[in-house]
Design goal:
This protein is α/β, with parallel strands linked by helices. Helices cover about 40% and strands about 20% of the residues. The chain has 20 helices and 27 strands. Strand 8, helix 10 and strand 9 form a beta-alpha-beta unit. Helix 2 runs antiparallel to helix 3, helix 2 packs parallel to helix 4 and helix 16 packs parallel to helix 17.
Amino acid sequence: MFCKDLLKKYNRPENFFNRDLSWIEFNRRVFEEALNPNLPLLDRIKFISIFFSNLDEFYMIRVSGLKEQVAANVGGPTIDGLTPREQLEKIEATLKPMLESLVELWKNDIHTELRANNVFIHKLTELSEEENNLLNAYFKKEIYPVLTPLAFDPGRPFPYISNLSLSLAVVLLNPKGDKHFARVKVPSILPRLLRVDAIINPQRKKDSGEKFSARYIWVGDLIKANLHHLFPKMEILEAHRFRITRDTDIEIQEDEADDLLRVIEENIRQRKFGNVVRIEVEKDMPGFMIDTLLENLQIHIDDLHVYDGPLGLSDVMVLYDLPLHQLKEKPFYPVTPKWFDEDEDIFSLIRKKDILIHHPYESFKPVVEFIKQAANDPDVLAIKQTLYRVGSNSPIVKYLMEAAERGKQVAVLVELKARFDEENNIFWARELEKVGAHVVYGLIGLKTHAKMTLVVRKEFEGLKRYVHLATGNYNATTAKIYTDLGLFTTDTELCSDVSDVFNFLTGYSKQDEFNKLIVAPLNLRNTFLKLILREIENVKNGGEGKIILKCNAIVDPICIAGLYEASNSGVKIELIVRGICCLVPGVPGVSENITVRSIVGRYLEHSRIYYFFNNQNEEVYLSSADLMQRNLDGRVETTFGVQDEKLKNVLINNILKPYLRDNTKARKLNASMEYANILPEESEKKFNIQEWLMKHAEKAASKIKKAK
């Protein structure tokens, strides 16, 4: 009843930001990092790539969904008052100036700065005749054999065009004077930027004292210049690049599936043939070619994006790998936690006390080592783990396979429905099955997003359980660039809860009550609201109420309504939300006690920390879940309180509160859905939370080395 009454009280469009427009404001903060003149050049290029990569996924999933609603005449407004058609109009109007700015930035500022640092992206006309001849010879040998020109005429239907692929639309004239249309795909196996100096002089060795330089051309330019080889005896009249985006959010009919793995594989195949939702074209493509593409791709003029510059700028990330360290932020190498340097096995270390690890400031190595030692330890009887996004080269999965080969009970829930990681996860699921591990693919109607590992070990006193719980994936690669937290513990009640959750995942357990673990979709929203309600009651009883939440997204209307109620009751609420925030802060009578800030920096903020003052008996929870309906209702998620007072102090005073001091990368959200930079006061020093955490980690590691 509390939930329904709360939502009814605050259910007005002006109390909620639109989810998709809020996401665009998150990507605007990525865009602003690309524009930031204080960032080194290659880091700005990195943010250009991230912006366009984010946008591709946004169109594949969110925009495609809105277009489906419009096509199905679903016209009703969402909680923020916008219909699907209105959302699409606002999305396009908001994105257009950003896209134009970034293309101009690329063509002018970035190009100029690259040239100043001896990195050149040439037009073919800028190269000598000899260089062009060498490149043309390279084309014939290395590129021509993999190209397939596809004609379009009454006998040959309009060719299939794959998602996010770059293509050339070509108009030809045959000897009889007839015009023809063809498409040439730029294969994704080819690099978008070809290194000219490596092609024209592959044997050349760099002199040790020689200044670094690199010269590139766009592969599309070289293909375009050599189209006559693909169409001999034809005259090339027009050739222009275009790129399409397809709907990849294909619905899975899980309730009708007799084999979920097979259904997911079919889903991946179907994804390639989703409806086209966007076409990007070069500015100089003539109208008749655009009309031909729109008609045959069955899309509308509203789905057209015209660029006065290169298409698919997500591909420029390759430049970030250049060995120009002076053009990047100072490298940081995760430190090894002090306890891990001791000469004890990892189990005896965890037995002594709970251990908290903060990635990427602290190394992911202990997590890998935990699985490795469990796989090799003859006293370990069983390992159970959830895997959501493990990556293509996972050391953790390899150790799980070793454990199964050694005869240990290995049970792994591999979530096949982790979007865009399905193929990796299918591969690992099959590899684990081959060695005898028990593999569960996921639950019908739910994604398993919880990050849990349980190790059962035979010891002198009897069987003992060891648990690792985390906010982020078991992915050694992303652990270097995502901020996340993990907890090792032998807490009896928490270990018992984790066992119960695994039984719920792998068997038919109907367990819905737990000692310490909070589990979605069973009780996470209600528990969160109870914690909010407790802060409200404390204020009503003359105490102080305070909530600090750090997460990736706040979307759930009921949770937002609970925060509004707390604000109106005098509870001070500080939110650190990296991405989507549908809560409107600073509105008198609704949210005047709520501030929202976002931090976009070197690392992707991914950890979820939920803090409640609780009349000075502070409580801190870590979670795999954001406050979104999909997390609270459609996923298996775990949220766990940190009991150890020292670790709780670290989380509050060394992590959470310093985030509120950031005046360099932090931006504050206002009631108009605009983010403003938080600038230091005259008496304040600049404070960058991610830099501070790096220095803090290095200082701690240095002290240990000196002590040794």
